[in-house]
Write a structure and sequence with these properties.
The structure holds two protein chains of two kinds. Chain A folds into five domains: 20-131, Glutaredoxin; 153-172 and 189-348, NADH-ubiquinone oxidoreductase 51kDa subunit (Rossmann fold, 3-Layer(aba) Sandwich); 372-458, Roll (Ubiquitin-like (UB roll)), CATH 3.10.20.600; 461-548, Up-down Bundle (de novo design (two linked rop proteins)); 562-617, Alpha-Beta Plaits (2-Layer Sandwich), CATH 3.30.70.20. In chain A, 39% of the residues lie in helices and 14% in strands. Chain A contains 25 helices and 19 strands. In chain A, a hairpin with a 3-residue loop joins strand 3 (80-83) and strand 4 (87-89). Chain A is globular and about 80 Å long. The longest helix of chain B has 12 residues, at 27-38. Chain B has two domains: 11-66, no CATH class; 78-158, Glutaredoxin. Chain B is built from seven helices and five strands, in the order ααααβααββββα. The radius of gyration of chain B is 17 Å and the shape is elongated. In chain B, strand 2 (110-111) and strand 3 (117-122) form a beta hairpin. Chain B is 42% helix and 13% strand. Chain B is of the alpha+beta class. Chain B has helices at residues 11-17, 27-38, 43-53, 57-66, 86-90, 93-104, 149-158; strands at residues 78-83, 110-111, 117-122, 134-136, 139-141. The chains are: A alpha/beta, B alpha+beta. The interface between A and B is large, with 62 and 50 residues.
Chain lengths: 618, 159
C-alpha cells in the first residue's frame, strides 16, 4: 500500500499485515545493535542465510530471519533469539549456526552450551523471558526492541505501531495535553520536568510557528538507552513526536542525534522516509488535514549541545553555546519560536500513554515519578546492559537481582548515577528507591539513567577527577565559573591523587564547588560539582587517606602505588618479562620474578598478562 | 606532520555542498562531510562554503574549532578512538590509552609523524557493556586489553 489516507485505512492496513503474517513461522532474530555488530552479529546472520539457502529451506516460507535492534544485553552478544520457542542464545559464533538450525529451528531442542547459565546455581535458563536479567523488567519504552526489524515500518505497524497516533488524531489537542499531564510523565533526559506542563506552556504561547524537537544527543558517558531506542525502534520516537506536534500545534520537528551514533542516524533516516511514503509524515497526515515533518540534525561531538539552548543554537547552524534562560525555550526556543524539546525515551513513551491511558501509566512507579525508566547498568557488575523497570526500585534490587551482583565477587562500593552531572551513592544507601526526587536528595540525580556500579577497586577521588576532567574538556567556555572554576577543581584533585594534597584542599574544593553551583550559566556548570561534592560527602576517608597517608586505598592512583610480584604465586613463566615495555622484570624461568620499581612506569601490562594473578598493587 | 596540500579544485567542495539545502542549518552537516572526505576541514573548503552560503568565514571557522568532530589540521590515514566513557574508564581505558600513546609515539588527539595514525579519545560510544572499547577506523573492538590492543590495531590495518 502507498499512502494511507485515513485512520480507518491504517487499521485496515494493519489487519491486512496481520492476515499475511505468519506468527507460527520459526523465526531467527539476530541482534544488529552496535554492541552485537561489534561482536560479529553480521557474520552470524550471514551464516543463517547461507545455511537456510543451502538446505533449500526457503526464507519466509519455512524460516523467517530478522535483524533487530539492541536487546540491551550487549555484553553477551551476538544475541540470537528464536521464535516462537522463546529461546535466547548468547555469544553465538558463525560456527554455531548449523547446530542451531539443526537442533533448535528444525528439531525444537535446546543447544545447552549457548544458553544463559546462572552464575550461582549453575542452572541453565533457555527461555528469554525467564533469564533473571529480563525477568524483572517491564518494558514500555523498549517495548519493541529486539522483536521488530527497525528498518521495516510494516513490522512496527503490525506490532501495534501508529495506533496511538490514530487515537490522538481523534482527540482534541487540549485533551492530549491533559492525558500526558495526568500520566505524570517526566522528562527522561535528566532534569525530570513534567512533560505535560511543558507542552501546555508551549501551546499557550501566541505564535504562528512552533517546533517540537527530540534530544538524541545522549552525551552522558555510561548511558546508551537512547541509542538503543533510536536504532531499535525509531518509529516509536517519530510517532511520539507527531502526537506532540499535533497537541501543541507544530508543523516542523527536529531530531538532534549524536555524531557518535551512525547506526541511529541511518535507522531514523530510513524510518522518516518510510513514514513519509505512508502519509504518516508530511502534508495532510492520515487525511486529517494536519501536516508535520521531521528533519534530522547531526551533532558535532560537543557534550554541551545536550543542553536545550545549546542544542537549538547548534541546529540553527551555530556554535552550540548555551544562553541564559530568563525566557524558557517553550516561549522562545528554536529560531526564537515556542519549542517543545523532549528526550528520546520520553517521546517513545508518548504513544503508549495515549493508547493505554494516563491511569495505566500512572499506576506504575512512585508518588512523584510515574511509569518506568530505562537504566543502563554498567561498570563492575555481572549482567550489564539496558534494563527497564518501574520507578522506585531500589539500587540494591537493580544491582543484585537484575545485575547479578558485583563482578568477580568483589565488594559493592557505590553506584554513580546521572553522568558527569550526577554523583556517587554509597553502598550503605543502596536501599534508596531510584526516582527523580530521592536521587536528587542524596546529592546525585537521575540524569539519563546511567547506573555505573563501582567496586572496592574503584578509587572515588579518581572518579571525581575523571568527571571533572570530562567537564573541563566539554565546558564551552562562555561563563567564568565553569571555564575557570572547573580547571582549578581539577588541579586540586590532581594534587590529591598525586600525593601532594593538603588538609586545606578539601575546604577549598567545597568552596569552589559552591561558587560553581551558584554562578554558572547553564546546567552543565551548575551540576558540575556533584561528582566532587558527593564523593567528599560519602567517601571523605578516601580523600583523607590520599592526603594524610599518601595512599590510594583502591590501588588506582598511579603516583601512590607500586607494582610487585608475589613470589608465592609467581610460577616463573616469563610472560610478564617478555611483555614489559620497560624490560624491568627479571628472573629465571620457573623462579619468582622481580620488578625493578625504579624503572617501572606502572603501565599494568604485567598484571594484564599474568595468568596466575601474581602481580600485586600496593 | 606533512605539508598541507592545497585543494584547488572547488568542485570537490561543491559536490558536497550541493547535497544540502542552502540554509545555515546545513553548515554543520556539510563540515562533517568535508571532514569525512578529506579527513579534515580544509581552509579552502571554509572559504568556498562561506562564498556559496553567504556566511562569514569567521563563523564557519568558529564552528570548526568548537565541534570535536571537526579538525582544521589533516588527520592520519587511520583513526584510533579510545572510548573514555565512565564504564570504560573503570575497566581500564586509561591503560589502553597509555599503551597506544607509548607504542605509537603520539599523544592523545595527535597524529603520528608518518601521518599513519591519529589517536583520539571519545566520550562514550554507547557500547558500555563491552568496556573498554577501542575503535579502529569506525570498527568497534570490545573488552580490549593493554597487552593486546596493538595486535588489534596492526591486524586490522594490515588486513
Amino acid at each position: 500500500m502507498g499512502v494511507i489516507n485515513s485512520i480507518e485505512q491504517l487499521e485496515e492496513y494493519r489487519r491486512e499485515l496481520a492476515a499475511t503474517a505468519k506468527p507460527d513461522l520459526p523465526t531467527v532474530l539476530v541482534c544488529f545493535g552496535t554492541g552485537c555488530q561489534a561482536n560479529g552479529s553480521r557474520l552470524v546472520a550471514n551464516a543463517f542465510m547461507e545455511i537456510i539457502k543451502e538446505q533449500g529451506l526457503q526464507v519466509d516460507v519455512n524460516i523467517g530471519i530478522k535483524t533487530t535492534g539492541c536487546h540491551g544485553y550487549c555484553e553477551n552478544g551476538p544475541l540470537v533469539a528464536l521464535r516462537p520457542q522463546d529461546i535466547l542464545y548468547l555469544k553465538v559464533k558463525p560456527e554455531d549456526v548449523p547446530e542451531i538450525v539443526e537442533e533448535s529451528v528444525k528439531g525444537g531442542r535446546i543447544v545447552e552450551r549457548l544458553v544463559y547459565r546462572d552464575k550461582v546455581t549453575d542452572e541453565i535458563v533457555p527461555r528469554y523471558s525467564e533469564i533473571p536479567f529480563y525477568k524483572h523488567q517491564l518494558r514500555i519504552a523498549l517495548r519493541h526492541i529486539g522483536t521488530i526489524d527497525p528498518t521495516s515500518i510494516d513490522d512496527y505497524i503490525l506490532a501495534g505501531g501508529y495506533a496511538g497516533l490514530a487515537k490522538a488524531l481523534r482527540m482534541e489537542p487540549e485533551d492530549i495535553i491533559s492525558e500526558v499531564e495526568r500520566s505524570g510523565l517526566r522528562g527522561r533526559g535528566g532534569a525530570g520536568f513534567p512533560t505535560g506542563t511543558k507542552w501546555r506552556s508551549c501551546a499557550a504561547v501566541d505564535s504562528d510557528v512552533r517546533y517540537v524537537m527530540c534530544n538524541g544527543d545522549e552525551g552522558d558517558p555510561g548511558a546508551f538507552m537512547d541509542r538503543s531506542i533510536m536504532e531499535g525502534d525509531p518509529h516509536a520516537v517519530i510517532e511520539g513526536m507527531i502526537i506532540g506536534a499535533y497537541a501543541v500545534g507544530s508543523r516542523q520537528g527536529y531530531i538532534y542525534v549524536r555524531d557518535e551514533y551512525p547506526l541511529a542516524i541511518r535507522n531514523l533516516t530510513t524510518a522518516i522516509e518510510a513514514a513519509r511514503e505512508k502519509g504518516l509524515l508530511g502534508e495532510n497526515i492520515l487525511g486529517t488535514g494536519f501536516s508535520f515533518d521531521i528533519k534530522i540534525s547531526r551533532g558535532g561531538g560537543a557534550f554541551v549541545c545536550g543542553e536545550s539552548s545549546a542544542l537549538m543554537r547548534s541546529v540553527e547552524g551555530n556554535v552550540g553555546e548555551p544562553r541564559a534562560k530568563y525566557i524558557r525555550s517553550v516561549e522562545r526556543g528554536l529560531y526564537n519560536k515556542p519549542t517543545v524539546l523532549n528526550n528520546v525515551e520520553t517521546w517513545a513513551n508518548v504513544p503508549e500513554i495515549i493508547l493505554k491511558g494516563a491511569e495505566w501509566y500512572a499506576s506504575m512507579g512512585t508518588e512523584g515519578s510515574k511509569g518506568t525508566k530505562v537504566f543502563s547498568l554498567v561498570g563492575k557488575v555481572n549482567n550489564t546492559g539496558l534494563v527497564e523497570v518501574p520507578m522506585g526500585i531500589s539500587i540494591r534490587e537493580l544491582v543484585e537481582n537484575i545485575g547479578g551482583g558485583v563482578l568477580g565477587g568483589k565488594k559493592f562500593k557505590a553506584v554513580q548515577t546521572g553522568g558527569p552531572s550526577g554523583g556517587c551513592i554509597p553502598e550503605r544507601l543502596a536501599d534508596l528507591p531510584i526516582d527523580f526526587d530521592s536521587l536528587t536528595e542524596a546529592g546525585s540525580m537521575m540524569g539519563s539513567g546511567g547506573i555505573i556500579v563501582m567496586d572496592e577497586d574503584t578509587c572515588m577521588v579518581d572518579v571525581a577527577k575523571y568527571f571533572t576532567g570530562f567537564l573541563v574538556e566539554e565546558s564551552c567556555g562562555k561563563c567564568t565559573p565553569c571555564r575557570d572554576g572547573l580547571p582549578r577543581i581539577y588541579d586540586l584533585l590532581t594534587e590529591v591523587t598525586e600525593g601532594r594534597g593538603r588538609e586545606e584542599h578539601l575546604d577549598m574544593l567545597e568552596e569552589l564547588c559552591d561558587l560553581l553551583t551558584w554562578g554558572a550559566l547553564c546546567g552543565l556548570g551548575t551540576s558540575a560539582a556533584n561528582p566532587v561534592l558527593s564523593t567528599v560527602k560519602y567517601f571523605r576517608d578516601e580523600y583523607e587517606a590520599h592526603i594524610r597517608d599518601k595512599k590510594c586505598p583502591a590501588g588506582v592512583c598511579k603516583a601512590l602505588i607500586t607494582y610487585s610480584i608475589d613470589p608465592e604465586a609467581c610460577t616463573g613463566c616469563r610472560l610478564c618479562a617478555k611483555n614489559c615495555p620497560q624490560n624491568c622484570i627479571t628472573g629465571k624461568r620457573k623462579e619468582a620474578h622481580v620488578i625493578d620499581t625504579s624503572k617501572c612506569i606502572k603501565c599494568g601490562v604485567c598484571k594484564d598478562v599474568c595468568a596466575f594473578d601474581a602481580v600485586r598493587i600496593s | 606532520m606533512k605539508e598541507m596540500t592545497q585543494i584547488q579544485d572547488v568542485s570537490r567542495f561543491d559536490r558536497i555542498i550541493d547535497r544540502y539545502e542552502r540554509s545555515e542549518e546545513s553548515l554543520l552537516a556539510i563540515l562533517q562531510d568535508f571532514q569525512r572526505e578529506f579527513h579534515y576541514v580544509p581552509e579552502e573548503g571554509i572559504r568556498r562554503l562561506s562564498e556559496v552560503m553567504g556566511v562569514p568565514a569567521s563563523k564557519i571557522y568558529a564552528m570548526g574549532t568548537f565541534y570535536k568532530a571537526l579538525s582544521l589540521t589533516p588527520r592520519g590515514r587511520h583513526t584510533i578512538k579510545v572510548c573514555t566513557g565512565t564504564a570504560c574508564h573503570l575497566k581500564g581505558a586509561p591503560q589502553i590509552l597509555e599503551t597506544l600513546e607509548r607504542e605509537l609515539r603520539v599523544k592523545r588527539n595527535g597524529t603520528t609523524e608518518d601521518g599513519e595514525f591519529t589517536l583520539e579519545c571519545v566520550n562514550c560510544v554507547g557500547a558500555c557493556a563491552m568496556a573498554p572499547v577501542t575503535l579502529v577506523d569506525e570498527v568497534y573492538h570490545g573488552k580490549t586489553r593493554p597487552s593486546k590492543v596493538m595486535d588489534i590495531v596492526r591486524k586490522q590495518v594490515e588486513g
